[in-house]
Design a protein that fits this description.
Elements (H helix, E strand, L loop, with lengths): L3 H26 L11 E7 L5 E8 L7 E8 L4 E5 L6 E5 L6 E7 L2 E7 L7 E5 L14 E3 L6 E3 L26 H4 L7 E7 L6 E7 L12 E4 L14 H8 L3 E6 L8 H5 L8 H20 L1
């Protein structure tokens, strides 16, 4: 019979060996940052009206920059899937009512827009370029719709209005779109919005921000400041009409919106600068914006 101390030593060594083995297994199975490029996720899914096919999108992250979508269609009778749109990004699929066609956002050479194709991948046709707009007015509804007989398709695309020739700047901003709220705004004071830029804390970027000035602001008046931080972080603020900011301004508040690093509209490098730095320099961008606004308007108005 082994000595009790030797038995304890044996059990201790055995426990260490088991723990080391388990630790090795656990370490081999953990995710690393490199796995992100192989991570895929299902986006939109749509069953064909006749119930024979499923069209779906897959979000891919296997190349530098932002993620992109692949468009696939599955034949439910065989379980096999076929990629649509070639090797180009594609998405936003829409079935015709007779299940003969799929309309989607895709690419043809250097053109991006509306494409239609049969579920078997045949007869792919580029229909029209889809142009966006920098209008601050919200969009509603679907960007495209099939006629009941599947022979026509309607889509939404922006075209220059009568005021476009007078627009200027970068980005181009057209100041007038409609008169929908003319009666609502009649006789009401609307707060001014002024953009400004400042150098980031690490001297890497010129960051843009927007200050909505309080109604009644004078060279001697003092006002509290509200900082409204957009989400995302891949989003952006702009000089367009913001109802909440206008209400705050009507009650005597100044409102600050900051397009901190990670925001869109300033190039891929600026948007990507937020990666692996949660609550870091993008937070400093917001704080520096507050200081810049106080230094600018606190001393001159």
């Amino acid at each position: 019979m082994p000595h009790p101390s030797k038995a304890r030593a044996f059990h201790f060594v055995a426990w260490l060996a088991s723990a080391a083995l388990l630790a090795g297994v656990a370490w081999a199975q953990v995710l690393t940052s490199a796995d992100l490029s192989r991570l895929r996720s299902i986006g939109s899914v749509a069953l064909s009206p006749d119930g024979h096919f499923i069209v779906y999108t897959i979000t891919m992250r296997d190349r530098p920059g932002r993620s992109y979508g692949q468009l696939w269609v599955m034949d439910l009778s065989t379980g096999k899937s076929l990629r649509l749109g070639g090797d180009k990004p594609a998405g936003a699929p829409l079935w015709s009512n007779d299940s003969r066609w799929i309309a989607f956002r895709g690419e043809d050479g250097d053109k991006q827009g509306l494409v239609m194709v049969h579920p078997d991948g045949s007869a792919a046709t580029f229909l029209a370029t889809l142009a966006g707009s920098n209008s601050p007015l919200p969009g509603m509804g679907k960007p495209a719709a099939w006629s009941p007989d599947g022979k026509q398709i309607a889509f939404v695309s922006a075209t220059p209005g009568e005021d476009a020739a007078q627009a200027g700047g970068d980005p181009m901003v057209i100041t007038r779109y409609t008169d929908l709220n003319q009666e609502l705004f009649a006789g009401k004071a609307i707060a001014d919005v002024e953009s400004f830029t400042f150098v980031s804390n690490d001297n890497r970027f010129e960051v843009e921000a927007f200050l909505t000035k309080p109604i009644g602001m004078t060279t001697t008046s003092k006002h509290p400041l509200i900082v409204v931080i957009h989400g995302g972080p891949h989003g952006q603020n702009g000089p367009g009409f913001n109802f909440h900011n206008q209400v705050y301004a009507a009650h005597g508040y100044a409102v600050l919106n900051v397009n901190y690093r990670g925001s869109t509209g300033y190039g891929q490098g600026f948007a990507d600068a937020v990666f692996r730095d949660q609550n870091g320099d993008e937070g400093q961008d917001v704080l520096y914006a507050v200081s810049a606004a106080v230094n600018a308007w606190g001393s001159r108005e």
